[in-house]
Structures are given as C-alpha cells and as structure tokens.
Amino acid sequence: MPSAFISRSPIYDRKLETYGYELRLFGAAWASSSISLSNLAQHIELSRLAGSHPVLIRPRLEELEALGRLPWPHGQIVVALSSDSLSGTGAPAPVVAELIASGFAFAIDEPSSVADLPFTDGVSLCTVTASHLDRWHNDTTVGRRQPAPKLLTRELENARQYEESIKLGFDLFQGEFFEKPRLMRGRDLAANRLQTLQLLARLQDPDISIEEVTILVKQDLTLSYKLLRMLNSAFFGIPKQVESISRAVVFFGLQRIKNWATVLLVNAAEFQPREMLITAMIRARMCERLAAAANRSNPERYYLAGLFSLLDSIMDAPIETILNSLGLASEIDEALLTGGGPVGEVLRTVLDFERGRPDFHSGIVAADDTLLQQAYLDALDWAHATCRHLG
Questions:
Q1: Are residues 156 and 211 in the same domain?
Q2: Are residues 247 and 124 in the same domain?
Q3: 185 lies in a domain?
Q4: Which residues of 249-280 are buried (b: 16+ CB within 10 A; e: fewer)?
Q5: Are 223 and 264 in contact (CB under 8 A)?
Q6: Which domain holds residue 107?
Q7: Same domain flag for 207 and 290
Q8: Average confidence (pLDDT) over 366-381
Q9: 237 and 172 share a domain?
Q10: Is the dihedral of CA 355, 358, 359, 363 positive or negative?
Q11: Residue 26 backbone phi and psi in degrees, to 5
Q12: Does the structure show a pLDDT above 80 at 369?
C-alpha cells in the first residue's frame, strides 16, 4: 500500500542554535496526492516532531484551505509558498488572509524582491535556495520593509555558500553543510579530541571486561559523576539509587553502560551546532530499532554506526582519521566510509528517511511503513528525553 512519511531538518540561527525545523513530507502517497498533511497530523503530535520550536511546512496549493483545520498549534506553523502562487493570477488571497488571521505565518520561497512581497503582515520568512544566492545578490532589494522578514538560506552544501549567506545578511540556515567538518586546519586531531577518541576506542573494544569498563569510567571523574547522575535521574526510574559505577554495570548491563558513557563523551566535546548530537542519537536509536526488527545480529553495531555518523563533524576531522583512532568493527567502518555492508544498508535507510528522499524505500523490514515512521518518532522521543538528562 502506498504510504506517506514525515521527517524534519533543523534550521539554525546565526549562533548555530536551533531556531526551528523544516518538516519534510514524502513517499508514494504524498507524491500521488492520495494523502495530505492533515491526514498525517491526525496521528502525529507536532510536539513530537519539533517541541515548541517553529516549523516550516510546504503544503500543496490545493491543501491550503484545509490547513485551518490542522490539529496543530497554528501559531507554531510557517507555511511556505512560492512568490508566484501568491502574486499570480488567481492567487488564493482570501484563504491566505484567513490563515493569517487564525495564527499561521507565511514564508515566501525564492522572492524576486522583499519590498514587493504580498500579504506582508503575515510574512515572517523569505527562503532562498543556496544555489540561487547569486540571483538574490543581483536582483533583490533588501531592507525596504520594516519590520523585515527573516531570511533563510536552504540546502546549504558548502562553506562558500554559508559565508556568502552571512555576508548577504541572512538570519537562518539549513542544509547538509552542517553535517560536515568545517574548521579543520589540517588532518591532525586536536589533543583534547584525540584523548576523547582514545577513551571512546577503549570503551568500544569488544573484548573489554566489566572490571576494565568500571576502572576506565572511574578514572575520568567528570564522566563517572555525570554517568551516575544520569542513571539516577527520573528518566530511568530505578527504585534504588545506584551509588557506584560497578553497581551500575551490574544493574544496567555492560553494553548499556558503554552506550551511555559513549553518549556522554561525545556530548562533552566542544562543537556547534549542538543539535548534531540529537540528530546522531536519533539515527542511533532508529538504526538499532530497524536492525532488531529485521532480526540482525549485534544491534549495538547499528546503534554505534548511527551515533558515529556525525562524529567527523562533531570532532571536526576526516572520518578516516577518526576511524583509525577508534578501531571499530569492520562492519561499522564500512558503513561509515562507504555506506556498504549490512550495517551500511540500515544506516542508508535511516539517512534517506531523515532527509525525505522522494525515492525512499527499504526492504530491510519488508517495507513495513508503519514501523519505519514509528521507529523515527520513537527515536525522536528517546533522543530528546535523553538530552534533557545530559545536563
């Protein structure tokens, strides 16, 4: 049966803090217009997708009137439309005006001029695709309208586009550029990050014993403190306080302690945007869930592949350098370097889903569309709940 899916992409401000999310709707049913955003919204609360952040949506033009009945907080939603659809003949002016009155804001995609935007009272965003920045620079007048809408560059792919956006006065940024190393001065890791990776590598040694993990965590007083504080938080709901690392290993199991310690170590690194850790954790959880559903062995390898899929950006170093330092299982290396192998197959599926690829399809779980969407939503819930307890 054809299906429709929904995922999200972070939008960052100039401080690289999370401003909001662009929601991606994709899949066969969405492409064929056999399902609408309103249908999806009946089953998915907006808070699961974006918390209290603004969301940018791109509905089909024929769906505009139905947006008024959308069971999501209208004041949280920015509706993106092309400038042609609002300024051309037969533009849905009454519908747009009604939506603005009910709390919706609007974004104009690829405007020819900020000064000439229609429905200015309801326009809070202007979006320009990164590959069109030269056209914006040459053909658009900025700053005539006060207060001016925020300017968002979409689909950023490289540092040149990002720097150009900054120069042109853009306020918000979105794209896969933020998932790549950006500030490298060479191919060598900074000493503090090398130390973190060495500790990560020791934790991921498949032959490490319970005693060795206990000693390893105890030696890092900050890690030991944070791990115990986290494990004793309401998130885990354990009936009796765990007072030592050795007791924590016995109570939770070796693999879970290794996983939590790994997350804490990654979180301790200095990196921007911080949203990358949430994204990595979503990938880790979804990879693990899909691997378990497909009866794959060693689901922890899938978890690590997802978690480490942004480690090059977080550590600001080439992935090859990082993997040489970590000494992970060859299946994980292959997945991260080439997307190959059984672990890579699951990781590619998760990345395609996250990015809303229109040709998305997976045979991993017999194309169980319900499981795919639910695994993504559950991973969102888990990642956000975990990060709230990281401190």
A1: no
A2: no
A3: no
A4: beebeeeebbbbbbbbbbbebebbbebbbbbb
A5: yes
A6: 5-179
A7: yes
A8: 85
A9: no
A10: positive
A11: -155, 175
A12: no
* Residue of 60, 62, 82 lying closest to 127 (CA atoms): 82
Residue type at position 110:
E
Q: Read off the pLDDT of residues 120-149 as tens digits, 9 standing for 90 and up.
A: 678 899 999 999 998 776 555 444 455 678
What does the alpha-carbon distance between residue 284 and residue 300 come to, in Å, rounded to a whole number? 9
Measured CA to CA, the distance from residue 238 to residue 256 in angstroms comes to: 15
Distance CA 328, CA 334 (A): 10
Number of domains in the chain: 2
- Give residue 154's pLDDT: 96
Within 13 Å, how many C-alpha atoms sit on residue 238's CB side?
15
Q: Is residue 359 part of a domain?
A: yes
Q: What are phi and psi of 172, to 5 degrees?
A: -130, 155
- The tokens for 242 are 């765990």
Q: Is the pLDDT of residue 1 over 60?
A: no
- Is 73 inside a domain boundary? yes
Higher pLDDT, 366 or 22: 22
Quote the mean pLDDT of the chain: 86
Q: Does residue 184 sit within a domain? A: no
Q: Which of 179, 208, 230 is the last residue of a domain?
A: 179
Residues 6+ apart with CB under 8 A from 188: 321
Task: Indicate if the pLDDT at residue 86 is higher than 50.
Answer: yes
Mark which of 154, 179, 204 sits at the end of a domain: 179
For 322, the token pair is: 């990082």
Domain identity same for 93 and 200: no
Q: Are residues 75 and 198 in the same domain?
A: no
Contact 6, 40 (CB under 8 A): yes
Single-letter residue type at 194: L
Q: By C-alpha distance, which of 137, 184, 154 is closest to 10?
A: 154
pLDDT at 120: 60
Place of tokens 């326009």: 123
CATH number of residue 169's parent domain: 3.20.20.450
- At 160-210, the pLDDT tens digits run 999 999 999 999 999 999 999 875 555 566 667 777 888 888 888 888 888
Q: Which residues contact 24 (CB under 8 A, 6 or more apart)?
A: 6, 7, 8, 9, 355, 356
What's the predicted TM-score (pTM) here? 0.90
Instruction: Give the pLDDT mean for 95-101.
Output: 89
Same-domain check for residues 167 and 313: no
Same domain, 12 and 83: yes
Largest Cα separation within the chain, whole Å, is 73
